[in-house]
Amino acid sequence: MKKLLTNDEFNSVLLNLSKEYDIYAPVTRPFKGTFSDTDLVKYEKITKLEEINLKDKSYYSAKEILLPIRQTIFYFNENEFKKPEGRTKKALVLLRSCDLHAVERVDNIYLNNKFSDEYYADAKKMVKFAVIGCPGKGWESCFCASMGTNTTENYNLGLTFKDGEVYSDVKDEELKEFFINAEDKEFAMEFVTENVEKVTVPENIELEDIINDEIWRDYDRCIKCGRCNFVCPTCTCFTTQDIFNRDNSKTGERRRVWASCHVDGFTSMAGGHEFRQKSGDRMRFKVMHKISDYKKRFGTHMCIGCGRCDDACPEYISYINCINKLSKKLGDNNE
Amino acid sequence: MSNIYMPERGEILSIVQESSIEWLFKVKTSIKPEPGQFIQLSIPMVGEAPISVADCNHEEGWIEFLIRKVGKVTDAIFNLQPGDSIFLRGAYGNCFPIDKYLGKRVVVVAGGSGTAPVRPLIKKLLKDEKTELELIFGFKDQESILFKKEIEEWRRKTPMILTVDKGCGIDGECVGLVTEYIPHLKMYEGFENLEVVIVGPPMMMKYSALEFLKLGIPEEKIWVSFERNMSCAVGKCGHCKIDETYVCLEGPIFNYVKAKKLLD
């Protein structure tokens, strides 16, 4: 069902929707950026169009709606464990095509990697996705076209914002009732077809061929802050923690918090032994996961080409350059 | 759908000191692991730790864990007494492919606390009359020797080399690393019927495997057990991943053909 709405009409749709759905979209938080006088664009609940930042790429992805930064697995007291209720209100998430592909990547790990994670599965059931287009060639560090994630058909709602109007492609039956009164209008969803950055991903890499390569030593300058992992929409690692209440040490909760393969302690075992101590080796581990390991397991590359890792790195380490260098190197070797 | 993160209560039946630093905890539980698998042991308010199964009895409903006091969780476990509750989740990971071993000649090389996960395997293999078993156990020093009584019992039933890395040695025992004794094993004529299990510290496993390869034992006859920082044990948290392999899902037991490619 394709509809054309004015911005005002769309706002009243959002208002009606927000009675049933928490609507999440990229918004600007002034002066909350990494550097002084910079803004932060992140996902938050919205109720009207004017709150949405359609112009910029969000620094963080929509990942935390399905996979919170901190998530309680259960509460405990002396006698019992109790699972928290989880999401009770449905959610509608406005995101870009690449980020919707990222959700499919996360699904594989949380639903299809032998065991199904019921916290993620429960949250997923409550969430619908609205794809929004990107301007022009995307942003500086985007390479979705190279990763094949620039287009998608797999959305509940497609939105194109143009000249004070909203072109809506409503696929989801439950969402249709909110748009029913709007004017019918045939249109095609617009997606990015080309980016400024072009990335060649080397195929069929064997770990043993590249593990001792000099290329990784360039990345020993990484300061292991983990920002690249935290902004990545496909990074899914976590660490389990137990905490107890200060005023009643017999009650507390077990929770999981986002973890990063770049940050110290990720591979630490009891007794202090740690694998991959050098930053460059951690970079290798991450890069290989994104462009090789995951594909061996699930058939698609994990990386969706959003380029947020490049945007976030305080050391200006470019993951894009790394893949291209690796590709060139492996290509050279194959010749 | 069951919640994969929810542990169940177990009761500590007994705690026995095995070496100067390791204790054996026997826990009453309904969980029925296979040799080689591991359990997530947890204490609410402290956390979880993956511990391999040092023995189990499905009929009587108990599992034994060999635990060294080396971290937050194990520190807390050491404060427990028989009768106290402990929480368990599992069993996780694959197990030793025992069907492949039965009726063959099996060499088990184990070092230090690596003797714990092979203990239920050895017990099973000893029960099978058609399986020939040979053991090499290596420990750091005399005080570190684990399962002393059982080692004596096993020695009576099957050829065995017990070695300590250093010190004055023990009467009738060897001194040195397990790798030095691998060429002295008895069962080397014909490899088609031989299977080799190596469990211990990473370095020990690596050099032991190389020693067997030098003797001409094919890679596919060698089995090792990996240890990693496993936080979730169900393939989600990513801590134990090496290449496309999740040690908690596809391991901890790996054939050497696969294990040699798991580089970190």
TrEMBL record, chain A:
Key words, A-Z: Iron, Iron-sulfur, Metal-binding
> Which residue intervals define the domain 4Fe-4S ferredoxin-type in the entry?
213-243, 294-323
Look up keyword Ligase and say if it applies. no
The secretion signal range is none
Report any Pfam family annotated for this entry.
Answer: Fer4_22
Q: Does the keyword Iron-sulfur apply?
A: yes
PANTHER family associated with the record = ANAEROBIC SULFITE REDUCTASE SUBUNIT A (PTHR40447:SF1)
Q: What is this protein called?
A: Anaerobic sulfite reductase subunit AsrA
Q: Which species is this record about?
A: Candidatus Cetobacterium colombiensis
Gene encoding it? asrA
From TrEMBL, chain B:
The record's annotation in InterPro entries points to: Cbr1-like_FAD-bd_dom, Cyt_c3_hydrogenase_gsu, Dihydroorotate_DH_Fe-S-bd, FAD-bd_FR_type, Flavoprot_Pyr_Nucl_cyt_Rdtase, FNR_nucleotide-bd, OxRdtase_FAD/NAD-bd, PyrK_electron_transfer
Q: Give a Pfam family name.
A: FAD_binding_6
Q: Which ranges carry the FAD-binding FR-type domain? A: 5-98
Q: What name is this protein filed under?
A: Anaerobic sulfite reductase subunit AsrB
Which species does the entry assign this protein to? Candidatus Cetobacterium colombiensis
> What phylogenetic lineage does the species belong to?
Bacteria, Fusobacteriati, Fusobacteriota, Fusobacteriia, Fusobacteriales
